Structures are given as C-alpha cells and as structure tokens.
Amino acid sequence: MINKPAGCTSHDCVAIARRLLGIRRVGHGGTLDPAVTGVLPLAIGPATRLLPYLDGTKAYLGRIQLGLNTDSDDLSGEVLNENPWPLLKKEQLEDLLSLFCGEQMQRPPNVSAVHIDGERAYKRARRGEQLQIPPRPVTIHHLKLLEWNVAEGNLAIELRCSAGTYVRSIARDLGERLGCGAALAELQRTSALGFELNQAIPLEALQPSTPLLDPLLALGARPQLKLDTAQWQAWCRGQRLPASSAVDYQNCDVVAMLRPDGSLAGLAHPTSTGELQPRVVFDAAG
What we know:
The chain is α+β, with helices and mostly antiparallel strands. It is 18% helix and 34% strand. The strands form 5 sheets. Strands 1, 3, 5, 8, 11, 12, 13, 14 and 15 form a 9-stranded mixed β-sheet that branches. Strand 18 and strand 19 form a beta hairpin. The model has no long low-confidence stretch (mean pLDDT 90).
C-alpha cells in the first residue's frame, strides 16, 4: 500500500515497486492520473489474483476551480475558455452538489483510459480526434462541500464513489450546470479497495523487508470459512466443498477460505446447490 506521489503514473509506480522489491509479479488496484496523489494498493505475487474481487469503492479529497474549461477537465490540460463564476452562497453550492449523489450516468473525460474501439481514449484525443464517449453508470455515495472560496472561485470537496467514477467529470459537469465551466484543480485518494491513507507508505520506502498487509484485511466483512486439514487438501486439488451452516452466504459473491492455520487459502463462490466452488486457489496441488 503506497502513498502515490504526484508526477508519475500508476504503471510507473508498479515498475518502481518491482525494482525495489525484486519481485516481478506486482499489480495495482485502481489507476490514478499522474497529478493525483494518495492511496495506490499494490498486490504482490499471488495476491494479484485477488484484485478483481475487492471492493472497488474509493474516497477522495479534491479541489475544483470554477470559471474555465480545459481539454482534459483538469488544470493539466489546455484552457479552452474562461468565464466569470456566479457568486453563490455556500448553501446554494451544497444544494447543487447534492444533485450529483446517488446512481447516475457519467461521461468519462476525453483524456482518459477508457477504451474506444479498442484504443485508449486519451491517445485518440491527443491526435486531435473529436470523441463522443458514451456515459457509464456510476454511484456517488457521498459528496460533501468542505470549503467555498467565492473570491477565488474554488471549492474543496470530499467524496466516496464507485469504481469507474471520474472526479474530473464531476468538476466538468458542475461547471456546465453553473454555466461558467470548471476543472479539477487537485485530487488525493484517501481510500481504495478497503485500505486507508494512514496505512500507506511512501513509494521510495519500499524494500524487500517491508512488511506486507494481510490480504484478509482487503476482503473486509466477506464471510470466512476455516478449513480442517482434510478440507484444505481437497481445496488445494480444486474440489468443491459443502457450504457450512455456520456461515451466512446470503447475498454473498465470494467466501474467504482459510487454511487450518487461519491464513488465506483462496476464494470460493457459493453455488445454488449448496457448495463452494473454487475461484482463487493458493497452493494448488494440480
């Protein structure tokens, strides 16, 4: 778990982590733009197989600048136009931000990693192509105004949102609603995949002796089933296991399967027939 610095991509961080740790198999849990700082979960070795099953909810602290539009929807892009911003009261701005909460369709920025006809949108945008990226469903769980500087036309926000949400798009859409334009000025991710900023360490502090976080921490409140020796041996051979009456599998997508010593043995999916189907098996015996 690293605290990503500004100025490097998530891919850069993975490459640096591979070099510092001396491990080839490293993956990250959620791309961050180069200018964005904060929580970037790194999965090491077999733990990379867990990434698709972790909670994609993320949290951010950000600052939005009103009165301009850019081609990237943040201040790193080229300014397209500038306009005066309305002298809103704080309560008016809070009411406007509340309209962004809940489930909605959001159009990603043109300068983004979204695939358009098999190619990243940002590559096509940088060639000068006019893009029409279709909106996608996202959920804004929480959006709070922390500060409103009416003289400077910028506001600080706190938000919690689903995977795939672009805070740059929130800034752009806020500017459209106000009629003055807006762009994201600063952004820090404070939570991702169930991990918080206070658990992150500086990228340059990584070394082979750095203690790794237990993967079970990332699985949150998902059900767990501790296996006895016979069950664990069957699990390692990829066999289905009967579900336990002691575990509540209702509305459950995966179950954390534990070795007899309590460490993570993998993930299983509850079936309609009352069995646990292996999804991720560590220590596979073939």
